[in-house]
Model the fold of this input.
Amino acid sequence: MPDIFFLQKALGADASLVAVGGCVRDRLLGRDGGDLDLATSLMPEAVIERAKASGLTVIPTGLRHGTVTIVLNGVNIEITTYRDDGAYLDGRRPSQVNLGVSLEEDLARRDITINAMALPLKFINSNGWRANIIDPFGGQKDLEIKLIRTVGDPLQRFEEDGLRPYRVCRFVSQLGFCIEPKTAGAISQKLEVTTRVAVERVFVELSKLLVGQNAPSGLKALATHGLLDKCIPELTPTIGCEQNTYHAHDVWEHTLKVVHGSPADPSMRWAALLHDIGKPAVKFTDASGKIKFHGHEVASEKMAKQILNRLKASNAIQAEVIALIRHHGIKPDNAWSDAACRRLLHRLAKDGLDWRRWASLQLADQLGKGLDTEHIPQAHAEMVKRMERITSKFPPLNIQALAIDGRALMKLANKPQGPWIGTLQKHLFEVVIDDPTLNTAENLQLLAVEWIEKMNRN
Ligand code: ATP
Ligand code: MG
Done:
């Protein structure tokens, strides 16, 4: 915790200074560690002047919105002047903000009651801090009864800003709370406004929702209130899409289980969400009445690419999610040879994928099928152990790791550069991946000479 008393002193005794929003909510929930957002009655110019006079470093981050960043003991702290939002004209952002309003007015512009509480900094370390919370909209009560409720009329609040319905579902996922019925009802009435929000902001909220502890509840809330159809309509056909005897659930329920069971980071969870999205499109029933999803990995990969692109996900996330989806259907078992495992490790590495992350999605996918789940963790642990043994001996090979390079091959063949080098390297690579002990310059020279002689004969 930075030295906030120094900060209060720097800003002056006449400045009201409060912690506000998420940090107060999290403190009441016993969760520390998020950003410490501060708000003050001082105008930004006065914040800058007084902080500078006390020798603090000041960054004028968002002066238009009344925000100043102060560096205190190496920590960046945002201080925003109490403000309310002027008229919302486009369902995205207020047309202007008004600075210099009261704290109550500042709290009234916030999205949900549990995010609309403040705690004066002077009480932050006192035993009685709870008694000093400023809570005009019943946020503490809602925290207790685990309720997400907008500040004020939900229809109006969602009309102002189309991101708020997404935030509501995000908090359902993060906190496991329910949505108050009027708030829930208003989401489906204001769906049109949500389509006007910048996709980048929607992506941030969806990513936070996905990594939440109760992601399935958050996703169900998106679906129930019509938001899913607006942001990822391609997922809707998975709801009720019945599967074959390998699955206890339809594609959507299975997806929710895989999301919940995979590691809580954005790429893993996006991959889990989209890994079977292509299934409804490729579903068919064969002559014997069996349901099949041939080629669903390719279909899912293609759709995921389009979706992540549309949502402007970063290149890094897109690349990993796509690779995870591409390889999600592979399930090595005891019948696989070490060489086959090495080939798989090579394919994963070629796509820039950490095999352990592939393995954790694999486990979540298996468990998410909901059948015969008792033996799955054990079998999976054995598979991981085997992969570990294989990689510890010989790391996933690639062509560059061959113990002979292109120049040496040209010398051996006494031939100029050409496509033949790539073909020869591929041949050597196949040999080496079957038996990595053969990856020595001597062995590869012999193999190369053999191959070159054959090439010259043909
Ligand atoms: P997190 O722990 O994810 O940072 P947070 O509650 O701090 O959660 P932020 O997005 O950082 O969420 O927003 C900070 C505060 O600003 C919120 O607690 C809320 O009071 C207010 N807020 C943020 N976005 C909106 C919005 N779209 N409409 C109204 N108030 C908002
Ligand atoms: Mg925050």
User: Anything to note?
Assistant: Residues 367 and 376 are 7 Å apart (CA to CA). DSSP finds 23 helices and twelve strands in the chain. The mean pLDDT is 94. The longest strand covers residues 75-81.
